[in-house]
Design a protein that fits this description.
Helix content: 25-40%
Number of helices: 6
Number of strands: 6
Strand content: 15-25%
Largest sheet: 6 strands, parallel
Shape: globular
Oligomer: single chain
Radius of gyration: 16 Å
């Protein structure tokens, strides 16, 4: 079922009333903003030489918004049968930037960092690339801890555990990556799936998969 992006301001709402794709505000694909770099440096890992890990999203949110944390919005439980789907139109070059903005909005509105999983189809998020430099075991240990936003390659979605919110950035990569991983990402989202990418491509995949 084709979707036409709305022109109003983007809002993220969660609902368990069956699959819906809610277009968000159109993005200007011709001049996407650059992909954000690694997060601010945190304390180096004990006994591990080299650069410090980028600060986790939770720490960045706390630094950017001092003071009381807003109350979390009312949302369906993780056990909801069918998550809500929200589409944020973006070019391949701007999809990761759009995903970052979605994560920031989720954190600002009270979502716990551990509720969020971010998947990328093209270049990995800088945080994921940095963590993988310490090895696969250490990287997936952070996933298993479940206390912060976790960034992973969409091709590894089968290995990722479900979380209340999944943010899917179609930021390039092989043409069949979206078709192969997006339906699985939908099954990993307990309450909300946010997809950042080309609306025509996303609709063609979700239209066949839901």
């Amino acid at each position: 079922m084709p979707l036409t992006p709305a022109i109003e301001e983007p809002q993220i709402h969660e609902s368990a009333q069956g699959p819906r794709v809610t277009p968000a505000a159109s993005r200007t694909a011709q001049t996407p903003r650059p992909v954000p770099g690694p997060r601010p440096a945190a304390v180096p890992r004990p006994g591990r030489p080299g650069p410090a890990r980028p600060a986790p999203p939770a720490q960045r949110a706390a630094q950017a918004t001092p003071g009381p944390v807003p109350a979390a919005p009312t949302a369906p439980s993780v056990s909801a049968a069918v998550p809500q789907i929200q589409l944020i139109p973006a070019s391949a070059e701007g999809a990761l930037d759009a995903a970052e903005e979605a994560v920031d909005l989720l954190l600002d509105t009270g979502r716990a960092p551990g509720d969020i999983l971010v998947l990328t189809t093209g270049d990995p998020h800088p945080w994921a690339a940095h963590e993988l430099s310490f090895g696969e075991a250490a990287y997936w240990a952070l996933h298993d801890a479940g206390d912060d936003v976790f960034y992973a390659d969409a091709t590894q979605v089968q290995r990722a555990a479900g979380r209340p919110v999944v943010v899917f950035a179609a930021n390039g990569g092989p043409v069949d990556t979206v078709a192969g991983s997006l339906p699985v990402a939908l099954t990993r989202a307990g309450a909300l799936l946010i997809v950042c990418g080309d609306p025509q491509q996303i609709n063609s995949v979700l239209g066949a998969g839901v």
